[in-house]
Amino acid sequence: MTHPTGSLSAPPPNSDDLLVLLAVARTGRFTLAAESLGLNHTTVSRRITALEKALDGRVLSKTVGGWELTDLGSRAVEAAENVESAVALLRGPPGAAPQLSGVVRLSATDGFSAYIAAPAIAALQRSNPMLRVEIVTVTRRALQHRSGLDIEVVVGEPQVHRAEAFRLGYYMLGMYASRGYLAEHGMPRDMIELCTHPLVYFVDSMLQVDDLDAPRRLVPEMRDSISSTNVFVHVEATRAGAGIGFLPCFMADRHADLVRLLPSEFKEQLPYWMVLRPDSLRQPAVAAVVAALRAQTAAYGHALMGQPAA
After folding, report:
1. Contact 197, 259 (CB under 8 A)
2. CATH domain 15-91 topology
3. Domain range annotation of the chain
4. Which of 232, 250, 278, 308 has the fewest CB within 10 Å, making it most exposed?
């Protein structure tokens, strides 16, 4: 015979087991949770089993991307976060404001990671030195199963389920060439002349984001020169004279040796979106990183759009 959750005859959940569940919820995998806690995989599995027995129900469900919380698991994680906050308060000096700690996992595009996320997080860590942030640089659609990720930043409006999504801001793409390339090959005066030059951009067959397919829609006649999945390669290949690069203005405008071409014809505006698990903002560290990213994106707005600072 089973007992309803909260029954007097059921053993109360162990606080250590709740903290193990919290680690699994944040990483999406038993192995990663075990590593973060200094335990082994078997111990994590045993702790989760003990917690499910105490709560008389499943707290995790297996998905393609890892482990996801059930409704009961989400309620248990809320309790685990309270335990974590209480422990953090006890460890701090009396009367001191609690500091952020733990690991926040973020995935974002290369340019956003380098020029927005990195400085925003570094500033946040100056007053919260125990906060760790792991950044995975990738250009893709938002994941349907985001086990192990707290925050995703993607290009284009995401189509996701069981997630919170909001637009962070916009950035601009433009056509650029190096001064050396233009001295050798001439300045294209219109779109027809520009299409005779080679293009530096993403690998067409590997591009996962529809919004980034603009060059092949705007100038399908341009042949590919150097293609890469990394936007920093686009910038450096363009600077090296490999062809004309379709580049984020906030990255290209940092280099005096690059010249923007036909800005009135080529000004592709794209949105950055942020995607979060429904429970992510309950974590103080995640909420703080989200706030820092939003503030940094807003402060960087003119550069993102290829405009001089106001």
Report:
1. no
2. Arc Repressor Mutant, subunit A (1.10.10)
3. 15-91, 108-310
4. 308
183's CB contacts (< 8 A; 6+ apart) are none
Tokens representing 290 are 């989200």
Angle 41-55/30-37 helices, nearest 10 degrees? 100
**Residue 146 and residue 161: Cα distance in Å, rounded?**
11
60: helix, coil or strand? Answer: strand
Instruction: Give the count of alpha carbons within 13 A of 13, CB side only.
Output: 26
Amino acid at 52: E
Q: Which structure tokens are listed for 51?
A: 């917690």
- The torsion angles phi and psi of 96, rounded to 5 degrees, stand at -80, 145
Joined together, the tokens standing for residue 247 give 């580049």
Distances in whole angstroms, Cα of residue 218 to Cα of each of 100, 245, 246, 249, 251: 46, 14, 11, 17, 21
Per the listing, tokens 């686009």 go with 234
Reading the block at residue 4, the tokens are: 């309803």
CATH number of 108-310: 3.40.190.290
> CB of 296 within 8 A of CB of 272?
no
pLDDT in tens, the chain (310 residues): 444 444 455 667 888 888 888 888 877 788 888 887 888 888 988 988 889 888 989 988 887 767 888 889 888 888 887 777 776 666 555 655 567 877 888 999 999 999 999 999 999 999 999 888 999 998 877 666 555 678 999 998 887 766 788 999 999 999 999 999 999 999 999 999 999 999 999 998 887 777 788 767 888 899 999 999 999 999 999 999 999 999 999 999 999 999 999 999 998 999 999 998 777 777 888 899 999 999 999 998 888 887 776 5
pTM of this prediction? 0.74
Q: Determine the 3-state secondary structure of 3 from DSSP.
A: coil
Nearest to 170 by CA among 249, 245, 254, 107: 249
Query: Tokens representing 227?
Result: 């293609």
Amino acid at 143: L
Query: CA angle at residue 23 from 34 to 76, to 5 degrees?
Result: 135
